[in-house]
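Entry 14: structure prediction run for N-acetylglucosamine-6-sulfatase-like. Input pasted below.
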Amino acid sequence: MIKYLFMLVISSVVCEDASRPNFLIILTDDQDSTLGGMNPMKNVQRFIGDKGVTFKNAYVTSPICCPSRASFLTGMYVHNHLTVNNSISGGCYGRIWKNIESRTFATTLYDAGYKTFYAGKYLNEYGVKAAGGPEQIPPGWSEWHGLVGNSVYYNYTISNNGVPTHSTDLYLTDIIRDLSISYIENQTGSEPFMMVLAPPAPHQPFTPAPRHKGVFANVTAHRAPNFNIATKDRHWLLSMPPSPLPDNMLSELDRVYRSRWEALLSVDELVSDVIEALDTNSLLEHTYVIYTSDNGYHMGMDNINTIILLVTKGLNLNLYLFQYITLNKSESGSESNKKCYYFQQCYPEYACKCQDARNNTFGCLRHIAKRINMKYCLFADNQSFTEMYDLFTDPYELTNIAQRVLPSVRHWYKLTLARMLACRGSENCDNPLETPSIVF
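Run finished. Output tokens:
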């Protein structure tokens, strides 16, 4: 979506014979909104959100870090860019991705004469030895400060234009802020630029800056109606014990929730400081500012979508975009549970039962029309378990209606999902089968 937003804006500017705008994108890691993830972001709300327009129906197609970021960069579905999980073998900065990497919005803007800047997390396996090392600079970036590997807050390596630099005690979000402000201060306004700032927050290990530790000491995780409920009518992966979660896990969820909020405070400061730098250097009114996340986060809720902010400010067009994202557990850097061989993202310190995040053996459709707000999911295993929810009447997805709708309706969703899982190009992907009458 970002790629096509750029193209739309640039096309309109060219048609009006005006100078080309700048772009600033802040891309957080695992930030939610429905569960309160935007509550700490007072500066984001003040400087961007309160002056924007809301796009409520923009979706992430694969809510896990590397596949989502690959789609963010290319505008492609996962089955086309083939980054299917967070491992090199799964396409995360692997051989296939490197063949596709020349077709990102960065290369498009770079070829159009833009100066391009990246600082922070790129793809989870970028810069690691097995993926070619940190000397590689992805195509399309004229200034590059890419984090090597997955999100951390301390003890990291950054590839500074292909030169690896290690730091042990400098907080990464603050370094991204400083690099960004320095870049802005060196802009003369004679050439358009595009910047992507990708801080680690609020990804695990959820480490706040020292100045923010304990700020939310009394905050607890959001208890929505679907928080920690029994899941007897769900796929076996979701119904396996413990269900509901034990009390000791709930206290851990509260701790993680507080730490995530506290880690986001440095991002909120980054946004304020970078916008101030744009303003001080007379660049703000000619810059679109977009705030979003790669995917949301699961905090004990059963079957809920997460809304992520995507915001834009600048020129004569103000956009305030909400992005709905299906939940998924983020990847930890620790050792997985060897007792669950087929579930490679099971980390005992953060999870008390196995998960399918590595494999994602399901596909989902979200169907929105004037009188329809439906979610359909099909698990692609020998059980072929189906879930359907009418989100108009059941926003927390408490009642699975898959067996209540007409078989013809259920069959239409199955066919449409199969088509979407194989489509290529906008003409094919944007024109699903004719919608049936929805009867319950």
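Notes: The two ends are 33 Å apart (CA to CA). Will compare against the previous run tomorrow.
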